[in-house]
């Protein structure tokens, strides 16, 4: 049975804009606002070419975050200079078990 999990990497699969994105992961057991207030955040800047995705696709980004206890919630926020921009991504994680 998994007692903990760890975010590992993320892979961007597509974007709606060619400008930079800031993706922020927030974690905690309460609300997302509680996690932000507590400083439980990790951010990464992303640049992805939507018109020629093979130039930037396939390179995973590291996600820097601690190990999480089972039951911890993780949210993702995405910011772009353009309103209504979208970013499609996958997140890899590891399940950790107690010995």
Task: Tell how many strands the DSSP assignment holds.
Answer: 7
Q: Helix segment count?
A: 1
SS strand fraction? over 45%
Category by helix and strand content: mainly beta
> What is the CA-CA span between the terminal residues?
10 Å
Main β-sheet description: 4 strands, antiparallel
Can you tell me the residue ranges where pLDDT is under 50 for at least 5 consecutive residues?
none
Q: What shape does the CA trace take?
A: globular
The portion of residues assigned to helices is under 10%
Give, in order, the helices and strands: EEHEEEEE
Tell me the radius of gyration: 15 Å
Give the structure's gist in a few sentences.
This protein is mostly beta strands and about 100 residues long. Strands 1, 4, 5 and 7 form a four-stranded antiparallel sheet that branches. Strands 3-2-6 form a three-stranded antiparallel sheet. The protein is built from one helix and seven strands; from the N terminus they run ββαβββββ.
Report on the structure:
- The chain starts with a strand and ends with a strand.
- By secondary structure, the chain is mainly β.
- Strands 1, 4, 5 and 7 form a 4-stranded antiparallel sheet that branches. The protein has a 3-stranded antiparallel sheet with strand order 3-2-6.
- The relative contact order is 0.42.
- The chain has one domain (2-94).
- The chain has one helix at 32-37, and strands at residues 2-15, 21-28, 41-46, 61-62, 68-69, 73-80, 87-97.
- The radius of gyration is 15 Å and the shape is globular.
């Amino acid at each position: 049975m998994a007692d903990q999990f760890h975010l590992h990497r993320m892979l961007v699969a597509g974007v709606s804009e060619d400008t930079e994105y800031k993706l922020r992961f927030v974690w905690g057991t309460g609300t997302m606002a509680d996690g932000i207030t507590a400083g439980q955040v990790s951010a990464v800047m992303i640049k992805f070419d939507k018109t020629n995705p093979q130039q930037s696709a396939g390179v995973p980004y590291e996600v820097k975050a601690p190990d999480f206890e089972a039951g911890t919630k993780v949210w993702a926020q995405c910011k772009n200079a353009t309103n209504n921009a979208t970013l499609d991504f996958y997140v890899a994680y590891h399940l950790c078990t107690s010995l």
